[in-house]
Write a structure and sequence with these properties.
This protein has 750 residues and is α+β, with helices and mostly antiparallel strands. The chain is built from 25 helices and 22 strands.
Length: 750
């Protein structure tokens, strides 16, 4: 439904910050110019993305660009059935929430917008943003103005700019933090918003803050800029500072952040970040988007040279009074409670459901007599009615101190322990009293095939199925299993953060019996704690319908074979991925029951997966082609590379990973050339000629980017691949190249 923008512009006149109002007016003009075809689509795409406006899949099975997609299972019920155009197809609007902080009025506005524009559902992301799906493009200026009126902007929620500045949702109340990072995150967010030095990046730039090194609430290790609060004693005086990291990131090939400064004074936080932005804008890749993140610039330059360039740039910056003004504001910042502290009333544990909820969803603050209560949101979704109920609740129980989390939940701070049972009762009445926060049932998932144009398998569908199954007995599971984190992405891009999960999954497609079947790669070796301390690697692809059984087997093996208090990460290292893979090997097979068509359907989708793309084409499936044999061999090889890396042989692991890519390339070449050459370089040239130059290998959205992993690896001839991190990257790249080869072969069979 289209809503009048003029009405909201007149009604909210004078209530918006002047610069925000001007920005929205400009966007509205650009919208009209694009409608009249006076603004090139390529330019308009970047300008709308910088204001948080995305295209998306929608319910009649088509994208706004005309490509066929699967039927959606997003619960809003707001899917458009209209014409397949940019103007009539619904899109997604991302809303920035710096450090996840919201108040009651903002919650109510979010409720109104979700109800009027998004079918009554709002969604929380893994970077503390809100997203509204199925929003009509014509309604976006009104939506922006209504948000701006309560202090929220969508500017730079997307695009090649600085994205939302995230921070630990427990900052200021956590018992283990060095100090409260909230005001510094706020200062950086305000300083960088629209800053002229941050408008010429080749790709996005994501900052994050954490109050400590040990926990995962800030996930600084996987961000372009990560600031960890630290203190030191100088002449008997305690000083604040930041351990500053740069160049982290997940995506297709994750990179761990590098230490830039061991102790950065707070007054240097803004100018050093500005200097970093200038270096990134000047030297970062612009043409090849696949290498345009700052992590690639640091990889090319080395952290020492990057540090030197940033420090030199800092010396050249003209003084900005906001550097000191914002820091002074931060030093004066202090949150206070609404109600007096207290103790838990006698008999509170007898309240139905309360004890279980308190155990998983409540943690004590460092301020005596107060707690933080987590509102668990399955799949990150919250209804308009629940948002309004939450607004009433926070007005009553605290000073509207609400934070979204990277696990797609909401936390309420400064709740008096004495009022906790009453708070639980009101949350329960609003449908917000589910237990299980931070447990194995609290599964993180990206939108996947529900709304994302890049989704391959249904991440939300799988996450919902896993949650339902685990919740049936999840709260009676062994304590060691209950604390595991599961994260699901619909594709390799890691929007669901599968690389840092105990059990991670990302969507891929494979052929069985001549049909495309939804699969998920199983990721092991990731670490959630220590700000995303390590990144996992895929061990095998399993049909989506067998993933719940895979979770059961892996968790069961952990309980049975665990040594003492051994962590899941240490268990995986000790047992080895080869043994775990063997445990799951039979799950790769099709069902034994003939005619079981559910196997060929994705979770939450009534249609057979990929039938519209694959067609009836290939026969029975008993005959396995040479291409399929070759691709299977390449997958075995890339897994062997992982095992070599586990055994401390990075150079051999890197070489095996390159060999796996060559095997996959040879498999495709064999489909056109009966006797392909044997030498690696000659195979690569045949692949380039037959599949890259002809664009047969190009994915509709990734293009030919994964082919460059092969070309680059052979060009380097192993140089620089003799350390564990470089070998890890090569294994990731090899897996992605093989996935692209599978997709290419699937398209060839269409």
């Amino acid at each position: 439904m289209k809503i009048s923008n003029t009405r909201w512009k007149e009604q909210l006149a004078g209530r918006l910050p002047a610069d925000w109002a001007e920005e929205i007016d400009i966007f509205e003009t650009e919208l009209e110019l694009r409608r009249q075809d006076k603004l090139e689509e390529r330019v308009f795409a970047e300008t709308r993305l910088r204001r948080g406006v995305y295209g998306q899949r929608y319910d009649n099975g088509r994208r706004h660009d005309g490509a066929q997609v699967q039927t959606l299972a997003f619960p809003s019920g707001a899917a458009s059935k209209g014409p397949n155009t940019l103007w009539d197809a619904p899109g997604m609007h991302r809303i920035k929430v710096p450090y996840g902080g919201l108040n009651a009025a903002q919650l109510e506005t979010m409720a109104d917008l979700a109800e009027e524009y998004s079918g009554g559902i709002a969604h929380i992301t893994t970077r503390q943003d809100f997203q509204l799906h199925y929003v009509h493009l014509d309604n976006t200026p009104a939506l922006m103005r209504r948000l701006a009126a309560v202090g929220i902007t969508t500017r730079e929620a997307c695009g090649n700019v600085v994205r939302n500045v995230t921070a630990c949702p427990y900052a200021g109340v956590c018992r283990g933090e060095a100090f409260d990072v909230t005001p510094y995150a706020d200062a950086l967010s305000r300083f960088l918003l629209g800053h002229p030095d941050c408008q010429e990046f080749g790709r996005k730039f994501k900052p994050a803050f954490s109050g400590c090194r040990e926990e995962a609430c800030g996930l600084t290790n996987m961000h372009d800029l990560g600031a960890i609060a630290v203190t030191r004693e100088v002449q008997g005086r305690r000083e604040r500072g930041f351990e500053l990291y740069v160049g982290g990131g997940l995506g297709a090939v994750p990179h761990q952040a590098k230490l830039l400064e061991p102790f950065l004074a707070p007054e240097e936080l803004l100018p050093i970040t500005q200097a970093m932005a200038r270096v990134f804008a000047r030297l970062g890749e612009k043409k090849n988007r696949n290498r345009a993140r700052i992590k690639f610039l640091i990889k090319d330059l080395g952290i020492e040279e990057f540090r030197r360039l940033v420090r030199e740039e800092r010396k050249l910056l003209p003084h900005d009074p906001r550097w000191s003004e914002y820091v002074r504001d931060a030093e004066r910042f202090a949150e206070t409670p609404r109600n007096a502290p207290g103790a838990l009333p006698a008999g509170a544990e007898q309240q139905p459901g309360f004890a279980q909820w308190k155990k998983s969803n409540v943690r004590p603050q460092r301020q005596e007599g107060y707690v933080v209560a987590t509102v668990t949101l399955p799949l990150g979704d919250i209804t308009a009615a629940q948002l309004r109920a939450l607004a009433d609740i926070v007005r009553k129980y605290n000073k509207e101190t609400v934070r979204t989390t990277v696990e797609q939940n909401i936390v309420l701070r400064w709740v008096s322990l004495a009022e906790l049972p009453e708070l639980y009762g009101e949350l329960e009445a609003a449908g917000l009293g589910q237990p299980g926060a931070g447990s194995i049932v609290d599964i993180v998932a990206c939108p996947g095939t529900d709304t994302c144009k890049l989704g391959i398998s249904s991440s939300r569908g799988l996450a919902a199925e896993l949650r339902n199954r685990l919740a049936e007995n999840g709260y009676q599971l062994d304590e060691s299993v209950r604390g595991l984190r599961i994260k699901v992405s619909g594709c390799f891009n890691s929007c669901g953060q599968h690389h840092i999960a105990d059990l991670g999954f990302y969507g891929v497609s494979r052929k069985i019996a001549g049909f495309a079947v939804p699969h998920f790669q199983v990721i092991l070796g990731g670490e959630w704690r220590n700000n995303g301390g390590s990144f996992g690697l895929p061990i095998m692809a399993i049909p989506s319908k067998h993933i719940p059984e895979a979770v059961t087997r892996i968790s069961g093996k952990y309980v049975a074979a665990r040594l003492g208090e051994e962590s899941f990460q240490d268990f995986v290292k000790r047992v080895g991925k080869a043994e775990i893979k063997a445990l799951l090997e039979d799950l790769t097979a099709p069902p034994e029951t003939p005619g079981d068509r559910s196997f060929f359907r994705d979770w939450g989708d009534a249609r057979e997966y990929g039938i519209g793309d694959i067609g009836i084409g290939e026969c029975a499936g008993e005959v396995v082609s040479a291409v399929e044999f070759g691709l299977a061999a390449s997958e075995r090889a890339v897994f062997e590379a992982q095992l070599e890396l586990e055994q401390g042989r990075p150079a051999q692991a890197a070489d095996t990973a390159v060999g796996a890519m060559v095997q996959a390339a040879e498999a495709l070449v064999r489909s056109e050339l009966e006797n392909p050459p044997q030498a690696r370089e000659q195979i690569a040239e045949e692949f380039r000629t037959r599949f890259y130059d002809t664009k047969k290998f190009f994915d509709p959205y990734a293009g030919g980017k994964f082919a460059h992993y092969l070309f680059s690896a052979l060009k380097k001839n192993g140089n620089g691949s003799d350390n564990a991190e470089a070998a890890h990257h090569l294994i990731e790249e090899a897996q992605l190249f093989i996935e692209a080869a599978h997709s290419c072969y699937n398209r060839m069979g269409a």
